[in-house]
Amino acid sequence: TIKSTQILQAMERQYIDLGEQAIILIDGPLIFFNLTANIFYACCLIFPPCNTQRLKQPLKMLLGLLVSCSIMYSVSLALLLCVLEEETSFEMFIVPLVIVRFYVTNSMTCSVWLNFYYYIQIVPAQRALLIWVKTNIKSVTYVILLFNGTFILFCSAVFTADELFQRSGLTNTSNTLTGNQIDGLYFTSRICFFSINVYIFLCLCILTVSSFSTAHYLHRHIKRVAQRGSFFSTPRIQSQQRVTVTGISQGVLYFLYASFYFFDSFTYMFSMDFYFSAWFTFTFTSLYTLGTTVNLAIGQVIFRQRAADAWKALKALCGIGMVTPSPDASQLTSGEIANTVPVDVQMSV
């Protein structure tokens, strides 16, 4: 059985947990759907449809990181569930736990920078800083992603070391580490804790500003075009509208999950009364990942086009909508064949 609640209980505090059956019934389908959908997205990025425009950098890297983080999160969470069925030691739990949280945080921040990238591409830059960012968007994105991954990885490593030392009950007399070293690790862990929460909050602000700025610009642009009596339902405008809508919905998802993330982190770290169990947190995280996965399907034409192609191929394989030839067709004369009207069947999606 799952022993996570016993492992996480550091002090005599009340914890909020889900039962084992609820975990399997809720997280199981979420893990399966998220993993399947994001593997499909990864295949779309590796083998893009021939009839769609190829993605350029840094958009392809942003999508690739977001998809890979969702895949690794789902795989790590499934492995963590399997590990806790057999092992009850804290050391076997904390490392997979930190890996899961590492990919979750990366997924959150990558979605922010993806939305910021669309903001830079859609909204005309007027300030000098934004003009410079738009001109050097590829280099800026690479630097941001490098900092993002390095910072989160460092914080995750510090959290892991601090938790291992705290739970192992290390003392100054029984270990080679001095008290100053242990205190320094504890202090570094607290700095990383506040730093990563501040970083997530700044990402929330960037996501909010970029999403609503893009929506405001498109609203004014479409209104001006409509007043001139011009035709504005072009594929480009429709694509920008779709990206903007999914960006706003992603912002709402991010706000809801970030609010829970802050509450969960601070109650676990400072509350003397209660805290949420890891699996309770993972359930909310899986729901957030599900929302991100659905948003990618709506906002990215490469995923929709490949899904449509796969659906058409599946229908053709099953023979749905296909015309069955007459058993006497081979016996028709050449004149009858010439007078036969061909039937074209279109399989709509």
Automatic annotation (TrEMBL):
Keywords: G-protein coupled receptor, Membrane, Receptor, Sensory transduction, Taste, Transducer, Transmembrane, Transmembrane helix. It holds the Pfam family TAS2R. The chain crosses the membrane at residues 22-47, 59-81, 93-119, 140-161, 196-218, 243-263, 275-298. One of its GO terms (cellular component) is membrane. Gene3D superfamilies: Rhodopsin 7-helix transmembrane proteins. It is found in: Membrane. It is a multi-pass membrane protein. GO terms for molecular function: bitter taste receptor activity; G protein-coupled receptor activity. Belongs to the G-protein coupled receptor T2R family. This is Taste receptor type 2. It comes from Sander lucioperca (Pike-perch).
